[in-house]
Specification:
This is Protein LiaH. It comes from Priestia endophytica. By secondary structure, the chain is mainly α. The chain is about 95% helix and about 0% strand. α2 runs antiparallel to α3.
Length: about 220
Amino acid sequence: MVLRRIRNMVVATVNDNLDKMENPLVMINQYLRDMEEELSKARHAVAQQEAIKADFERRLTYSQKMKKKRYDQAQIAVNSGEEDLARKALMEMKQHEEKVLQYEEIYEQSVAQLVELKEQLGKLEERIQALRDKRHTLVARANVVKAKEHMNASINRIDSNSSYREFQRLEARIMDMETKANVYTAYNFGGEQTAFTKLEHEEDVEKELQKLKEVQKA
């Protein structure tokens, strides 16, 4: 008993999954969900790239400021006769100068990558929106198909229904009764006409006979 119930549950689950696989609307909705997940990932990637760009922009700005600051400090130290201090300031200036070059390159790359990601994101958003719009059309078409299938199934059920067949049998019987009644009426009406015609002929004969008798008397 338990095994039979388990088997029935498995069969029902498999059939349900098959129905879903064969249902185009289910597949369309699943495809849209997958696309929207990809869209979410793409937006997250764009946000991360914007954060990276902003970070290197801050680093670049800071290194540029420190480069200028150390250069100004070196000038002050030279003017004050502090050559060692000037050398130290110039050394740090060179370090910041290298960082400026490094950050400029990375910043430019991050900007280019961000532009590319945003373009891809825009295309993906347009494609998903087009699919959403098309989904409404497909849903409407699918509903029409379902309605037609339902009507066809209803008609088939009616055609195969014993009550409907009995109704057709009764209709045929009534038509047969109507035909017989019409024939009977026509027959009776025709018989009456024949009787009336016979009486009329007999009257004519009697009149003619009377005329002949009168002629003989004359």
